[in-house]
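User: I'll paste a sequence; please echo it back and then give the predicted structure.

Assistant: Echoing your sequence first, then the prediction.
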Amino acid sequence: MINYQIEALVIKYFTNQINSEEIQVLNNWLKEKEKNRLVFKHYVVTNYSIEQFRSLQSANLVSWDDLESKIKPIKRNTSFWKYAVAASVILFVSLSIVFINKREKNNPINIITIAQPTLINNDIEIGSNKATLTLEDGTDIFLETGKDFVSNNVKANDAGVVYRDAKVLKGEIKYNYLTIPRGGEFYVQLPDGTKVWLNSESKLKYPVAFAKGESRKVELVYGEAYFEVSPSANHNGAQFIVNTQMQEIEVLGTEFNIKAYKDEPRILTTLSEGSIAINNGFEKATLKPGEQSEINTKGQNNTINITNVNVRKVVSWRKGIFTFTNLPLKEIAKVLSRWYDVDIIFMDKELENIRFTGVSSKNQNIEEILINIKNTNYINNYSINGKTILIR
């Protein structure tokens, strides 16, 4: 475990308050053994993740005075504690500032912790770029590190799939599918130049070429995707249309996120830029930047509900960040299950409804996140058996 003197230097390093003599002490410590360098590397990754979070929610961060009033420090050197408080957000390993609502709705408590880095050993892999490209003839091409594919107007490797624009007549349109497994994410540039980022456990259907003068139609079969659409003005006014279960989105040229997983009861569409029109077969709605539409896929409610949201939080997954905002642990478990390709089972169903707000790097080991959740004392323990995680 890192000692307090070194921890103080690490904190001062990340807060730009370290002097040349202290830099030398830190360098000597790093040279002592490999474990020290691994610990420091862990802090670097965490600092990067939380800096990303700050860019997402800089206006809503708790002030350091508020932090000091909420934390009861153990006996430590006064100057050190000053730095520790100043960097407590930076050094919280997984969830950063965590706000947990007790089971009683009107009795919230705040928990803010400085966590020590933990060296983890398990077989659960962190998600990475991987996908299956299904060609028009049904051939499956598995895309991952070290595997390239080039054919006709498409070039694909582990960085993504890029299509070249090609002319095609109406009635001759052929389709490809891009399927992202659990534990994966991927990028595709469509023939018209539209860019699409696909999250874990997602599937996109699209033409290998768009017919001139026809609407550009694609289908998010399931999952989550972020679209950066090539403007209609660049394609003789041709509309861009995205179909999902229970809705059709008409686009002129814009950026937006769709979340439409099979195991979730809502389809969420969030607009970053431009304007989109949503039609669920019963009513229509137009979104403005910063708005999110919600369609209930269960029950008889056919209304399109629109609310204002923090778009950066919604799309932070593209930047390698999990952002959880007042989210039940059950929903957090779904996100983690998709990215780490694991099954998370709650032995006590009441635990599923505890709500968390926080951020975590997608490049962290899943156990680091579990440790921090456990440290809140709202779960008793967890165990990992292969790709199954039991939470008690």
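Confidence is low (pLDDT under 50) at residues 56-119. DSSP finds nine helices and 26 strands in the chain.
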